[in-house]
Amino acid sequence: MESSSNEVYVQIVISSIASGVPDFVLRYSENFVGCGGHLYVTHETPYLEMSSPNYPSPSLPETECEWIIVSPSGTRMRVDFESEFRMATNCHEEEEATEYLQLHDGGTEMAEPYRRFCGNDQPSSWMTQGNALFARYVTSVTNPQAGFKARVGIAVCGGTLTSLRGVIRSPNYPNNYGNSQECVWLLKVSMEYSWTLEITDLNTPRPPWGQNCSATDYLEIRNDNENGVLIDTLCGSLGNTSRVIKVPSEQVYVKFKSNSAGTGKGFYMTAVVNKDEGCKQVLEGASGVLTSPNYPNAVPAMKECRWRILAPEGRRVKLIFQELNLPRDEVTGICLSYLQVHNASYWRYQMPDSPKICGNQLPAPIVASSAHLFVNFFTYSLNAGQGFSLTYNTDEESTCGGILQLPSGVVSTPNFTVEEGFVDCKWRINGRNVKNQTLIYRFDILDVPGILANYCRNGVVYVVGGRLFMGRFCGNFTTQVVLTTPFLDSFVRLVASTEKPFKGIYATYNVSDCGGSISGVDAVITSPGYPNNYAPNTICHWLINVPPGETMTLTVEELNMESDCTKDFLLIRNGYHIASPVLGRFCGTHAPVPITTTENFLTVYFQTDAYGSAPGFKLTTREIQRGCGGLIHMIRGNITSPNRPSRYGNNVECRWTIEYVPGFLVKLEFTGRFDIETDATCSKDYLLVEEYDGYLRKWSRALITCGPSNPRPYMSRNRKIRITFRSNDNINGDGFNIAYSAVCGANITSGTGDIFSPNYPDAYDNSLNCTYNIGTAGQYVELSFYDLFSIESK
């Protein structure tokens, strides 16, 4: 017997007159239904577990799993590994058989990599910096080992704050915090803002006489990150006063650390965002003037300004200094205020420290290597000088990058050589509306300074297709590299920082009339021209995906190709990445047995050489919906009854919970045929919708339905709902299909809260109509608009 969900009820009935009833043994096992997915930890369910399939038994060979795990805004996550950690020892050579777990500090594979784990040593616990984590488990070895199991939960303290205002407090405040604790918070907003912090309560042990706060428990505040400028370190008590700290950066690093001695109440801090008019801007246009604050008057102390200058496509930015008066310390020669110019689009993470510009001598003009240039101005001294004035223009053509045209072309770095400094090149192909084709890149020169074992930190070339990270390369390749994508909306990016020369890249691209992306449906795929012979020199790339948590079965119905798999072949990968495990490489006339994925992505790649031809292949894919229910946070999707479109089974229970961030409600639309066993009270087979009131902390029934008629569309009053489907032991129907989506708006009954426009602080979408109902009858509601207010005026 196999359950339909992750819960089973076992009932034991023993008659009161029974005697000599024998004991029994009930054996059960977990049934593998795929791996990976989009997972969420919440304050109601503060931890979850992720593991390699079948743990602690070995996974199947050629397995790939990807998890995206998200916790509530403002929190961090802690990852703790079980002691039984067993993998192959080869971690980094992706071209060879390997087995590893890769963690990224963010929600995508392009987020900052933390570490790649393999071998037999239990990894140490790890804390994310934010509220998102990407994990990827890959095994392409013949005999996988036990794998891993990890517990992921909301960290006791620390996190990321991105809202307009917030509160940070020590653990257990106002009660005493514990010993040997370290908490880190990152306060992050977009670059045109800064922060004001107010510490209204501070209570830690005082340091010994003659020593500073590092000798006891302390609160530390820095610009940007752990290596940023130290703003303040506090310990002891503030008495009856408060401490207001203005941090000029859009990002603040706050650390609280306690030792093994005494403790105290800790601290209570409020954080509020400020708008920095004119000091932190994104500048677009052909030319302009940039000056320090108050120029030509004296620069204010404790000021940090960032300007991001964006050139039009195909151009680059040039800076010309007109005036410069930023004094140095007369004794040490240290810059009291200074400018830094960065070429990198993501300078904070990828760019080494640029030279500090100060003094009175005008620098030579600075020319960016790409369409992005960051100008950063810092002052922490009262004697900051008169400031600076410079002009910028975008007259010069970009040395690399730009818009590429279909169906073919060239991607190359200028003169195939980059001598020194920093390079950031991005080439984009806009083929968003082109379907059922394959984009083929052929890299004849690929030489960048990064090292794969170091996550290509010094230099990397990566290719994105659609929104998927298709492949990443670094080092010097001596043979041609071919990369394909089923998405013609694609870009290639080269980012490198080095003092040594390197060749860069030279690649050609073209489009073939086969392949493409297939989503959410059972598919039939054939070679071009089937059942007639395929053409020589053909490359096709199909990507099939089903909803997260589901898997697929691929069946090769017919196979008639050349018998040499080095010439013409069909390649199947368990995932979408160029390094995803290979499930099979096929040729000849013998069709393989059906293949089952462990991922919700499946790659089908077909390639032929210049000689010979044959009818090719026909294959089908089928989605496997084993199990039902789950936690859903996706903006839109579909929920279906088990076995849909066939009849659902007996004694099935499925439960889905849909939860969105504040400011959104859930809309349900019942599409297609609706057929659940008819009953006057819907007590046999039924579909139940409940809503969760976060203020009252309880569920309430919103809708229960059955029968043959489609219910009307349903709009929730809260951001969290629960859908339960249950069937009894007789009479089955065709079930249901529910299309769910997030709709802006809210119904708020709690005492205080925040309302955000959709996507805030990014731009909202067009054609929106959001309604926010606040409070209850007889209440007065006070609304306060922060200074971050930007709505179209017409």
UniProtKB/TrEMBL annotation:
TM ranges: none
CDD domains xrefs: CUB
Listed A to Z, the keywords are:
Disulfide bond, Repeat
Q: Extract the Pfam families matched here.
A: CUB
Q: What are the residue boundaries of the CUB domain, all occurrences included?
A: 35-155, 157-274, 279-395, 400-512, 514-624, 628-743, 744-794
Check the record and name the SUPFAM superfamilies matching this protein.
Spermadhesin, CUB domain
Which SMART domains does UniProt cross-reference here?
CUB (SM00042)
Listed PANTHER family? C-TYPE LECTIN DOMAIN-CONTAINING PROTEIN, CUBILIN-LIKE PROTEIN
Q: What is this protein called?
A: Cubilin
Upper lineage is: Eukaryota, Metazoa, Ecdysozoa, Arthropoda, Chelicerata
Question: Which gene is this protein's source?
Answer: CUBN
